[in-house]
Amino acid sequence: MTKVLLATDKPFAKQAVTQIKAIADQAGYELALLEKYTEKSDLLKAVASADAMIIRSDVVDKEVLDSAKQLKIVVRAGAGYDNIDLESATAHKVVAMNTPGQNSNAVAELAIGMMVFQARGQFNGKSGSELFGKKLGIHAYGNVGKRVAMIAKGFGMEIFAFDPYIPREVIEADGVNWVGSVEELYSASNYISLHIPATAETKNSINFDLLSRMQAPATLVNTARKEVVNEADLLKIFEARPDFVYISDIEPGCSSEIKEKFTGRFFFTPKKMGAQTEEANVNSGLAAIHQIVDFFEKGDKRFQVNK
Ligand code: 3PG
Description:
Layout: E1 3-8, H1 14-27, E2 30-35, H2 40-47, E3 52-55, H3 62-67, E4 73-76, H4 86-91, E5 95-98, H5 104-119, E6 135-139, H6 143-154, E7 158-162, H7 168-173, E8 177-178, H8 182-188, E9 191-194, H9 208-212, E10 219-222, H10 231-240, E11 245-248, H11 255-261, E12 266-268, H12 278-298
Parallel strand pairs: 1-2, 1-3, 3-4, 4-5, 6-7, 6-9, 7-8, 9-10, 10-11, 11-12
Helix pairs in contact: 1-12, 5-6
């Protein structure tokens, strides 16, 4: 019997798990659950007998793949797959996939929600500011960036986007101002919302030069990955620009220094919250199990990311 392991250190909503199990049952597969685990050894043990695995931000490195003697496919239920060692997956003949677009709205709503929360002084009772009329730069116009633009439009923000991989016409068709360089994007904006993946090229790429170009008052919104921001430069811009604010879905490595020195100018979620909605869990979880069934039953590799 084909065994699918659902390994989620940060568990899905109950409804998502129930629906994933129903699809697995229908296909005649066994679904094994490993939720909220704290020890890597638990994952190594659980993966040993799995033919397929669904994960979230759970790390699938060489050690995990070495233990996964029967594994043929791992599906990251979500967008970013920087938590999978793709080279090692390929070497182990394991197909790696993601489920693009399935949790985009949840992440986009969080980005805008954090902007409102911070603009209103984190609801501290004092006078804050509005998003209306402010300039928002969307750094990468993929599924999440596009959704952020759509919601921000409703707030009456002036929206700019930079994405070297998306044609100018696609961005302009959404009523968003296309800009041709990352420098222009930062120079045009009060708010920057990051939607770039964490790759060798993007890690540490949000640096002092870019951030210092932002219009005052400046807020950097990070629902992407903490690694894309250069943290030495982040501390530098906090010092240099008293108007600079950083709100991020997950704490940066230098959070204790920020908390100590820059009261009121930051907000960090304690655990990555972007995709933590029942809807996003159901969408991405179901996409993952369907992709696994289609892979085994029809050889469908459409969403493979380690080609
Ligand atoms: C993603 O890449 O899809 C998001 O960062 C969500 O990650 P999560 O599944 O760990 O919440």
